[in-house]
Design goal:
By secondary structure, the chain is mainly α. It is 78% helix and 0% strand. The chain starts with a helix and ends in an 8-residue tail after the last helix.
């Protein structure tokens, strides 16, 4: 084996790792929002959680990635620690799917249909189909995702072939045979499997390398089995690193993954060593095959699950004992970078935080309305505190959503990100207007100004209208209710009309000397803020409607709505105009 074989080995490993990643990304993107449905199913029973772990890992082809996702889900409150244990157990079994796919590298026969199972035969066909799909369906994202899956499988199998060819000469190297024999020492075998898997951070690729090495006939079962056990420990490194900076339960989930695989390895390595020493089965000295590695890998994971599943409560208690109670980051923990690998989940968590942000902005406005004519300094400060909190929401959400948008998202997820990015700006501006209203209240209080009874009543009517439009827009956003969103714009037009009516009434009071110019300035600022609040509510509703119709031209929608008034729109407008008419107020 010369330097060129080493280069081939490294190149094959690169293709293998890239293939695993590309195939996983394509499968995950194909699944899209279905992951959220699967997660909901995991909350009912531990067995369903186990099945979920198997399915997700089989889909994304990486138990390490699944466990990192689980750490993120626990950190953001999607899953409890108890639910996470079942998924982690399932992930260990799900990763075996990759080893079975790669075991096809050992298929060899003169029978034609069997030859088609060999990667040398089907890999070029799969790659050709993938490129045809990619060129023929450029604008079809679903077809592109399928092409990505096929390309990933092609890279994976071609990488395996290159690795196999690169190491084929090792069978004639006595030193290599001695090295493989050293791993028949169970401790050394476990350490080798753990270290290699920890370095490349992919148990699938580690198993694939082992399967490629087995083809030269120098690797025996006695060496392969301990290495396979060690690979299960090495794959925990990714999740452990991922849990750094997470909350206590997320750290516990990563620890459970490590303890589950470590305890399983200790138990079954002990059983294997005893059986091997006492019975000395002939199979231990036989050369292992890629299929044999896949069988051993699956068997070990099944045995570990059967052994430790009855003790999942004890595993949970052990994790809680090792990782003590500590302080968590609160709601912003939902915006977890570990969820970026599953954009649909990350967006769902972002939406939850955005809903909280919207309600905080609404609360600030309610408090501001309450002290407009009955000033309270503590409440005024509370409004300012909420406004600062809403600013933090906007910064955190905006930064996180930009990260999500840089991922390989589906078209639906991309639209949801755009919608949220548009809306958080409007939510933040709502809290700004709450502070502006507080400043008007302070001016009225400090200067001992007094509105006329007519003006107070008119302002209260407009505030009632703004309260309703605020509630409608946030409810529409929270429930993704397009029907309610459509009803927002007519009320916004009524708020605009109210502003004009109240200003006209003020001019009339000035003429009758029932009000002052100074009060007129305060009134103008107040009306402007109320009208701007309704504008932002309109922006929220219109953004929902526009993105639902795959368009982002908000102003064009509003203009069309005004120029082509439908009967329903006109009916809604007249209803709100009558409901909030200031003509009914007794001056």
């Amino acid at each position: 084996m010369d330097i060129f074989n080493v280069f081939s080995l490294l190149g094959g490993l690169a293709l293998l790792l890239y293939g695993v990643k590309l195939m996983g990304q394509g499968l995950e993107k194909k699944a899209g929002g279905k992951l959220k449905t699967l997660l909901a199913a995991a909350t009912s029973t531990k067995f369903k959680g186990f099945l979920l772990g198997v399915i997700i890992t089989a889909v994304i082809q990486s138990s390490a990635t699944t466990t990192v996702m689980v750490v993120g889900f626990v950190n953001s409150g999607i899953l409890t620690l108890g639910q996470a244990i079942g998924i982690i157990m399932g992930a260990n079994l799900g990763t075996s799917v990759t080893s079975w796919i790669m075991s096809l590298i050992g298929v060899d026969s003169d029978v034609m249909w069997v030859q088609f199972l060999n990667p040398r035969t089907f890999t070029p066909i799969i790659a050709f189909v993938a490129i045809i799909m990619l060129l023929a369906f450029k604008k079809d994202s679903k077809k592109a995702d399928t092409a990505s899956i096929l390309f990933g499988l092609s890279f994976l199998m071609y990488g395996m072939q290159i690795i196999t060819e690169a190491v084929s000469g090792l069978k004639d190297v006595p030193e290599f045979a001695e090295l493989m024999g050293m791993f028949s020492n169970p401790i050394l075998g476990v350490l080798a499997g753990a270290v290699i898997t920890a370095i490349i951070q992919s148990s699938a690729a580690s198993v694939g390398i082992l399967q490629a090495l087995s083809l030269n006939g120098t690797l025996k079962y006695s060496s392969a089995i301990p290495i396979i056990m060690g690979q299960n420990i090495g794959t925990c490194v990714t999740a452990m690193l991922s849990s750094l900076g997470a909350n206590k339960n997320a750290k516990r989930a990563a620890f459970i993954h490590l303890s589950f695989n470590t305890i399983g390895t200790i138990v079954w390595l002990t059983v294997y060593s005893v059986v091997n020493a006492v019975l000395q089965p002939a199979v231990s000295n036989e050369a292992v095959t890629p299929l044999g590695i896949a069988i051993c890998h699956s068997a070990f994971n099944i045995l570990t699950i059967v052994t430790l599943a009855p003790f999942n409560k004890l595993l949970e208690k052990l994790a809680c004992l090792v990782i003590r109670e500590g302080s968590d980051k609160g709601e912003f923990a939902l915006l977890d970078d570990r969820l970026l690998s599953t954009p649909s989940i990350a967006i769902d968590r972002s939406r939850t935080v955005a809903i909280s942000m919207a309600h905080e902005a609404e609360r600030s406005l309610e408090l501001a309305f309450g002290i407009l004519f009955d000033y309270n300094e503590k409440t005024a400060q509370k409004v300012r505190d909420i406004e600062e909190a809403v600013d933090k929401y906007e910064d955190s959400l905006g930064t996180y959503l930009v990260k999500v948008s840089n991922q390989n998202t589906s078209e639906a997820d991309s639209h949801e990100v755009s919608k949220l990015l548009h809306m958080i700006g409007d939510f933040e501006r709502l809290s700004d207007h709450a502070v502006n209203i507080v400043e008007s209240a302070e001016e009225i209080h400090d200067k001992e100004l007094k509105f006329s009874d007519g003006a107070v009543n008119e302002i209260k009517v407009m505030i009632s209208a703004v309260r309703e439009i605020l509630d409608m827009s946030i409810t529409a956003f929270e429930n993704n209710d397009l029907k309610t969103a459509v009803s927002v714009e007519p009320l916004e037009q009524v708020v605009d009309w109210l502003k004009v009516q109240i200003k006209s009434a003020h001019v009339e009071r000035l003429r009758k000397q029932e009000c002052t110019i100074e009060m007129g300035f305060v009134l103008s600022d107040l009306l402007t803020n109320l009208e701007r609040i309704s504008d932002h509510c309109s922006n929220i509703a219109v953004c929902m409607i526009e993105i639902a119709h795959d368009s982002f031209d908000m102003h064009e929608y509003i203009n069309n709505l005004k120029s082509e008034v439908t009967k329903e729109y006109k009916k809604c407008y007249e209803y709100y105009k009558q409901k909030y008419s200031i003509d009914k107020i007794v001056q």
